[in-house]
Specification:
64% of the residues lie in helices and 9% in strands. By secondary structure, the protein is an alpha/beta fold. Strands 3-2-4-1-5-6-7-8 form an eight-stranded mixed sheet, with helices on both faces. The protein is globular, with a radius of gyration of 33 Å.
Length: 433
């Protein structure tokens, strides 16, 4: 099932499913009525003589069965006298069959419980997205709903105004232009005239734009199971939520039974090291620190050495984000990456840019700046629960082809969720249609 099919089922599927179930129920009732009529007809056709003949056959059959039972009973008694173990063997065989049946029932129940648990987890994540994206939905969805309430005809002015609205929603100029061009063609092709038809076309095109610019498999955090340490390098400007994201992710890995180490390489921002150390205490994960104002690369060197020596599953590296001194910041990140590669040539496993989702188009500009210095593998969008600028996900995916891997949808550690495009779109659009 494609991404839009999943979203379409969530957004538009209720009415279609109800109609389908209603039709199926009506067909089932008609079939039952026909079967009942046929049964009545067949019953009336049986004559009394046929019924008597049938009863006679049944009596003969009962007599034969009784005779057979008596013979078996006699043989069983004789066998029991000769060898008392045989009836026990029969009983044991029956018990074995009962045990096999019970085992099969337990297996089936276990599989059903697992399927139910997966469904509950899926529903829970969908609810998390809807709650976390409530403000985004109210901003983005409310604008679109207001726009549709005001339009009278689908003409050039309609599409021009729609393009302007998308730009204001942080979809970006380039992406908004592509969308409105595609919508013009699709609206004509589908002969979409009503508000509901146009809303569906717009949602479909927004989702298709996201889906065609990436692979869903790349949205998952990468890791290798060869026994080597997975090193995640977190970059981004101050205040984006890097340290908090690292703390929440460390808790997740620790809860999964993984060994985790943190590196406090943001050595210049006041309180940054202390904040990560506090997270380490909270989730019971060790933190490698350096002297005050220490060279960040030296802290990363010590942390990488320790992680490899102790065979840690994950090393999460916090870095500085002083965008006001961009040149020095980028040089520092390059040095950190070189330091990691000297000891672990295939690392970092992930280089994740943490972006404050409420910054809108500034987030897109930051992504372009950081990607020039250190090749990014994915994004973490934080603070989406307090933002109305959900369109930036589409802009980044369309213009940079970078997958969003994690999203911050609340204050709790469990509110750091794996990105799911379908749940994100449903959370974004569920009040729109």
């Amino acid at each position: 099932m494609g991404l839009f099919d999943k979203i379409k089922k969530s957004l538009f599927g209720d009415n279609e499913e109800e109609e389908k179930n209603k039709k199926s129920e009506e067909e089932s009732q008609d079939k039952e009525a026909q079967d009942d009529d046929q049964a009545d007809s067949d019953s009336e056709k049986l004559s009394e003589s046929e019924q008597e003949e049938e009863n006679s056959h049944l009596k003969e059959s009962d007599a034969d069965s009784q005779s057979e039972i008596s013979a078996k009973s006699s043989a069983a008694n004789k066998a029991e006298e000769e060898d008392g173990q045989k009836p026990v063997a029969v009983e044991t065989e029956n018990q074995s069959q009962d045990n096999d049946t019970a085992s099969s029932d337990v297996t089936a129940k276990s599989e059903a419980d697992e399927a139910e648990e997966e469904t509950d987890q899926s529903d829970s994540q969908t609810e998390l997205y809807e709650k976390g994206l409530e403000k985004t939905n109210q901003g983005f969805g409310a604008r679109l709903n207001k726009f549709f309430a005001q339009f009278r005809t689908v003409d050039e002015d309609f599409f021009d105004d729609l393009e302007e609205l998308l730009i204001e929603s942080d979809v970006g100029y380039e992406t908004a232009e592509q969308l409105t061009t595609a919508l013009r063609d699709e609206a004509k092709l589908q002969k979409a005239k009503s508000r509901d038809d146009l809303k569906k076309v717009i949602v479909e095109k927004l989702v298709e734009l996201y889906d065609q610019n990436g692979d869903a498999a790349n949205e998952k955090l990468r890791s290798h199971d060869d026994g080597k340490t997975n090193i995640y390098l977190f970059v981004g400007v101050n205040g984006a939520g890097k340290t908090t994201t690292i703390g929440k992710l460390a808790k997740r890995f620790k809860d999964e039974g993984k060994s985790v180490l943190l590196a406090a390489a943001d050595t210049f921002r006041a309180g940054a090291v202390e904040q990560l150390v506090e997270w380490g205490k909270r989730v019971d994960v060790p933190v490698v620190t350096g002297k005050e104002q220490a060279d960040p690369a030296s802290v990363v060197f010590d942390a990488t050495t320790k992680a490899i020596a102790e065979h840690a599953d994950y090393l999460l590296v916090d870095t500085a984000g002083r965008l006001q001194n961009k040149k020095n910041l980028m040089s520092e990140l390059e040095k950190i990456e070189r330091t990691i590669k000297k000891q672990a040539p295939d690392e970092p496993t992930e280089t994740l840019l943490v972006l404050d989702g409420s910054t809108g188009q500034n987030a897109l500009l930051q992504a372009k700046d950081f990607d020039k210095t250190t090749k990014l593998t994915g994004l973490v969008l934080t603070k989406l629960d307090g933002s109305s600028k959900g369109g930036v996900v589409l802009a980044i995916r369309n213009e940079m082809k970078l997958p969003v891997k994690l999203v911050g949808l609340g204050e709790k550690a469990s509110d750091l969720a794996d990105f799911d495009a379908a749940d994100y779109a449903v959370g974004l659009f569920h009040d729109l249609v």
